[in-house]
């Protein structure tokens, strides 16, 4: 039953994504300011389909820790779901994304015009400077910035290596950094076991203290993402 629902969901995502993307390209030409709200509506539809077809629900905790206005959300990254949920929960989300995504067919050319922030992961110091400039501009426009400090998807039950870019943009903008952890049904640890299947728990933690140095900030995020008592 789950396999059938999964296949139906993937078919829905492909067909609806292509259809929505084509309509969004029209919006980009006639009303570019509506591209982001249109994408947010599609994300809500997709998460609804995930719930109906696959029985997967998302439970949020601590949303009250997200202030109004600009902020940096330092989110754990376990699946493609993480790249979608904040489109449905924030008014003006701006994801820091690998620039290769902007070259995807249909949807890729819509990402930067909708306010998402590309990053050349092989660009070194120059790319980091460009990132901080784009993040400053997004913050000035009242956007909420979502960044994945792990740098890539890290499978549940495994430990990633945090990248220092989060420290650079926090210093450059002075914005509060709010850690976000995701429990998608696996206890963290070497012998990961499944718990509460069917529900993805997203927890928004209190903001980190301002002015943290690199080691302290990354250490604080590691403690959130990979707790010492994962299955307590």
Number of domains: 2
The level of helicity is 40-55%
Question: What is the number of helical segments per DSSP (H or I, 4+ residues)?
Answer: 7
In N-to-C order, the SSE pattern is HHEEHEHEHEHEEH
Rg over CA atoms: 18 Å
Q: What is the average of the pLDDT values?
A: 88
In spatial order, strands of the major sheet run: 1-7-6-2-5-3-4
Quick one: biggest sheet? Answer: 7 strands, mixed
Low-pLDDT runs? 188-195
Number of strands: 7
Could you tell me the strand content as a percent range?
15-25%
How far apart lie the N and C ends? 31 Å
Overall geometry comes to: globular
Structural class: alpha/beta
Present the secondary structure layout.
Blueprint: H1 2-30, H2 35-54, E1 57-61, E2 71-75, H3 85-89, E3 93-98, H4 108-111, E4 117-119, H5 124-140, E5 144-147, H6 165-173, E6 177-183, E7 199-204, H7 214-225
Parallel strand pairs: 1-7, 2-5, 2-6, 3-4, 3-5
Antiparallel strand pairs: 6-7
Helix pairs in contact: 1-2, 5-6
Explain this structure to me?
It contains seven helices and seven strands; from the N terminus they run ααββαβαβαβαββα. It is of the alpha/beta class. It has two domains: 1-55; 56-225, no CATH class. The chain has a seven-stranded mixed β-sheet with strand order 1-7-6-2-5-3-4, with helices on both faces. Strand 3 (93-98), helix 4 and strand 4 (117-119) form a beta-alpha-beta unit. The chain is globular and about 45 Å long. The chain starts with a helix and ends in a 7-residue tail after the last helix.
């Amino acid at each position: 039953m789950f396999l059938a629902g999964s296949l139906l969901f993937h078919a829905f995502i492909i067909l609806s994504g292509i259809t929505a993307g084509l309509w969004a390209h029209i919006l980009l030409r006639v009303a570019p300011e509506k591209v982001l709200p249109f994408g947010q509506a599609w994300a809500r539809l997709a998460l609804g389909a995930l719930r109906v077809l696959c029985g997967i629900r998302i439970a949020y905790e601590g949303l009250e820790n997200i202030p109004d206005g600009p902020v940096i959300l330092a989110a754990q990254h376990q699946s493609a779901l993480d790249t979608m949920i904040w489109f449905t929960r924030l008014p003006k989300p701006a994801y820091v994304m690998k620039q290769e995504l902007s070259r995807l067919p249909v949807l890729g050319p819509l990402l930067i015009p909708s306010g998402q922030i590309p990053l050349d992961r092989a660009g070194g110091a120059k790319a980091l400077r460009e990132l901080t400039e784009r993040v400053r501009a997004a913050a000035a426009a009242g956007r909420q910035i979502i960044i994945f400090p792990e740098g890539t998807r890290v499978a549940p039950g495994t430990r990633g290596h945090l990248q220092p870019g989060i420290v650079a943009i926090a210093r450059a903008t002075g914005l509060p950094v709010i850690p976000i952890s995701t429990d998608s049904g696996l206890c963290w640890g070497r012998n990961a076991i499944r718990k509460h299947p069917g529900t993805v728990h997203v927890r928004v933690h209190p903001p980190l203290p301002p002015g943290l140095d690199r080691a302290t900030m990354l250490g604080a995020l590691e403690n959130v993402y990979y707790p010492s008592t994962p299955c307590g």
